[in-house]
Amino acid sequence: MAFTLHERLAADTLLVADLPLCRVLLMNDRRFPWLILVPRREGLRDFDDVAAKEKAKFHAEIDLASDVLREVTKAHKMNVAALGNMVPQLHVHVIARFPEDAAWPAPVWGVGTAEAYGEEERRALVERLGRDFRG
């Protein structure tokens, strides 16, 4: 069965890169630099659904996303979470946080209204992140 990205994730994000296991997406909300990793496997809902032989790769890709986002944004703190209450497809949020951001120190969910990236800002950020994932 082919990998299909959940419609909500597709609507809210921009493609950055495909790693060996995960698709890397940028949340289209400029208030919070925010990556989402989605394992390209059908039927995964929770961490324990990831095959044992792929768990190390999954965690390594989450670590890589944290490193890349921290380097690009110079984040004060990285938040990593997998909730899945609104979108059942397994996905991991990697969010760069700053003491001056709109939600600090609380979680970013439900704070204000998303602000989409402008065309140039989006293009530049996706290109920079993509380069860093390719090495």
TrEMBL record:
Record SUPFAM superfamilies: HIT-like
A GO term, aspect molecular function: catalytic activity
Domain HIT: 35-104
Species of origin: Parvibaculum lavamentivorans (strain DS-1 / DSM 13023 / NCIMB 13966)
The name this protein goes by in its record: Histidine triad (HIT) protein
